[in-house]
Every structure is written in C-alpha cells, then in structure tokens.
Design brief:
318 residues; alpha/beta; Alpha-Beta Plaits; Oxidized Rhodanese, domain 1; 21% strand; disordered N terminus
C-alpha cells in the first residue's frame, strides 16, 4: 500500500464504519538513539490521531496503540522504516470505541521490567511454538506450563493446567522461579503471556538459570485466541488487555469485563452486583484495602468525570 493510498481514506468514515484498529507490538533490538526518537514519535502519533502507549528503551520498543486503520498502518510503516524495527511484527484486533484516553511515548530502562541485569532475548531465548502446535506441547505430561502474567490478569483467564505464580509484578518472577525447585522435575517448560514480550525475557532468564528445554507461545494468548477455534481451545476464560476494552475472548472479540478505576482490577458482571462495588470508587477486590478518605477522593473524581461528560468532553481521569 502506498502512502497516497494510506492517507486518502477518511478517518471519520473509517472509524464510524470499522471502529478502531488496535495494534499490539514489541521488538527487541539495539536502539541506542531511543532518547532522540521520543519527541518525533510522540508528534507523529498526535498528528495522526493515534492514542495508546509506546515504551522505548535501549533494548527496543513495546506498546499498544489504536486509531483509524489508515493512521495505524501509517505508524507501522513509519516504525518499519527505522533500521532497528525493520522486522517488527504486530498483532491486530478491533475496538468499537477508542480504547485509550491519550498518547504517551515513554523513555524506559526496560521495555518490559524484570529487573535482572544482562537478560538479552537477542542473545538467548526459548523456542517459539506456533498457536497451532501449542495444544500438543502443553498436553504432554512431560511439560510444566507456566503463566508469566500477574495475578489480576490470571484471575479472569488461564490455560488449562497452567501453574499460576500469583505475582503482583513481573519483577517477582525471577525469585519465584529460584524458589520453586520442583520446576526441574520435568524436562520441558512451556510459558505464555498476553502478546509474547514477557516470555521473551522469561524464557531468556530460564535458559540462563540452567533450564534446557524452554518453549513459549509465539504471539502470546492474543495470537492463540485469533487462530485457534474455540472448539479446539485449551484456553479458559477471557484475556486481560491493557486498554479500555479490559478483556478479549476467542476471535479477539471484546469481552464483558469492566475495570475498577480504584484498583485497576478487572471485574465481572457478577462482581458489579456486589455491595462493595461503586463505579470508580471500589469493588470487592479493593474495598477492604481502601479507607473512607480514599473513597471520598474517588467519589470527587467520579463527580468531575460526570460533569465533564455533561459538557461533552472527556475527563482525563476517566
């Protein structure tokens, strides 16, 4: 597709007809000039009406963005034109509404934070497994299946038979591995995450720790839900995503979860009926850990959001 073809579409018509295109992407590469790229990349996204988050660091790029089809395709072409990201891959899904409030391009020490020095997926990494071959691997009794995501993500969906480390952050994962000597009891370790990036570092770390047969799901849960039919799937539940859709299901259709804007945990329709649920203020996950002063502050924020809606504008905290 040429640049003229990309820019000839009407953004308003594109969004009205198709909703918004969501692109999840990451790429590990030596990106020494990352600091100088932040402002031009932010400006490019702003000029094209793209929203979301892109993290850039010396080790590469990671993020999820949304916009009209034309705008997102233009951004991807812009990134591919950079020598560091010529082979960057991405995963696409759709959102009926813009799933982000703003665009942020952030400078980071790591594009996914593990906190372990010298873990380089460009040097050592596990074996990629395509979604079509994943069921056979994780059904093998000689395989230990590990979910590398955090507890609020695993709470709404997980692969059948997976070990859940119950981590609050990815920084806890290395210690969890080192404290679980039983992981050496079987020869194969299979790992997965939302889009694949955490597993790049997790498998690299496992290899450095002496595990030999280490595998990870190529493209992550998102690619699996896109390609594997529901009737053949070993996935149970929904997949948490880091935008206002909250979750997606098979075929990458939008899920039914809401987000508690007090604790950022996903909540089900049943949890919305809890006496501890108050929109934007509390849910059953966080009610006991918040004070009345916290809830008063959250209610004031919700009031400001409601007033902004009445004026026809979007409150930055909504």
């Amino acid at each position: 597709m040429t640049d003229n073809q990309i820019t000839s579409r009407s953004p308003a018509a594109d969004a009205a007809t198709n909703g918004f295109l969501v692109a999840a992407l990451y790429h590990f590469a030596r990106f020494e000039r990352f600091e100088s790229v932040r402002e031009p990349l932010q400006a490019f996204c702003d000029e094209n009406g793209i929203k979301g988050t892109l993290l850039i660091a010396r080790e590469g790029i990671n993020g999820t963005v949304a916009g009209t089809d034309a705008a997102v395709e233009k951004l991807l072409a812009h990134l591919h034109a950079m020598p560091e990201f010529a082979t960057l891959e991405h995963k696409e899904s759709r959102a009926s509404k813009m799933p982000f409030v703003r665009m942020k391009v952030k400078l980071k020490k790591e594009i996914v934070t593990m906190g372990v020095e010298d873990i380089d997926p460009n040097r050592i990494v596990g074996t990629y497994v395509d979604p079509k071959d994943w069921n056979a691997l994780i059904s093998d009794p000689e395989t230990i299946l590990i979910d590398t995501r955090n507890d609020y993500e695993t709470a709404i969906g997980i692969f059948k038979g997976a070990v859940d480390p119950n981590t609050k952050t990815f920084r806890e994962f290395p210690d969890w591995v080192r404290n679980n000597t039983g992981l050496h009891n079987k020869p194969k370790i299979a790992m997965y995450c939302t889009g694949g990036i955490r597993c790049e570092k997790a498998t690299a770390f496992m290899k450095e720790e002496g595990f030999e047969e280490v595998y990870h799901l190529k493209g992550g849960i998102l690619k699996y839900l896109e390609e594997v039919p529901a009737e053949e799937s070993l996935w149970e539940g929904a997949c948490f995503v880091f935008d206002e859709r909250v979750s997606v299901e098979h075929g990458l259709k939008e899920g039914n979860h809401k987000l508690c804007h007090a604790c950022r945990n996903p909540i089900t329709a049943e949890e919305v009926t809890s006496p501890h649920y108050e929109a934007g203020v509390s849910c059953s996950n966080c009610y006991d850990s918040r004070t009345e002063e916290d809830r008063l502050r959250y209610r004031q924020r919700q009031l400001q959001i409601a007033l902004a809606r009445q004026r026809g504008v979007k409150h930055i905290g909504s």
